[in-house]
Amino acid sequence: MSNVPDLVFARFGSARAKPRLTRVYRADVGWTQSLSHPVLTSSLLANLAEGGYTMVEGKWRWKLREISLTHGRLERR
After folding, report:
1. How far apart (Å, rounded) are the C-alpha atoms in residues 64 and 77?
2. What is the radius of gyration, based on Cα positions, of the chain?
3. Mean pLDDT of 18-44
4. Cα-to-chain-centroid distance, residue 17
5. pLDDT tens by residue, 60-71
6. Helix residue spans in the chain (DSSP H)
7. How far apart are CA 53 and CA 41, in angstroms?
8. pLDDT at residue 76 is higher than 80
9. Does the pLDDT value for residue 2 go beyond 90?
10. How buried is 45 (Cβ within 10 angstroms: 0-12 exposed, 13-18 middle, 19+ buried)?
11. In what order do the strands lie in the sheet with 63-68?
C-alpha cells in the first residue's frame, strides 16, 4: 500500500506515480526550491500544510505539476 495521496495520483495521471518534491510555495515567501527531493507522501504534504505552505510542485518522469494543499483533499490511497 502506498502512502501517496489519491490527489497526487490524479494530478500525474498514473496510480504508479511516485513524484518528488521540487518546490514549495508560501504566501509570505513565494516559491522556494526544495534542497532535498522527497517523494510526495501524505505525511510530507500534511507537515508542509501545517508549516504554512499552500502549494507544492512535484516532478515524476517528464511531468511537472503544482498541487494545492489548501483544498483538504489529501486522502491516502
Report:
1. 21
2. 11
3. 94
4. 12
5. 999 999 999 987
6. 6-12, 42-50
7. 15
8. no
9. no
10. buried
11. 30-33, 20-26, 55-60, 63-68
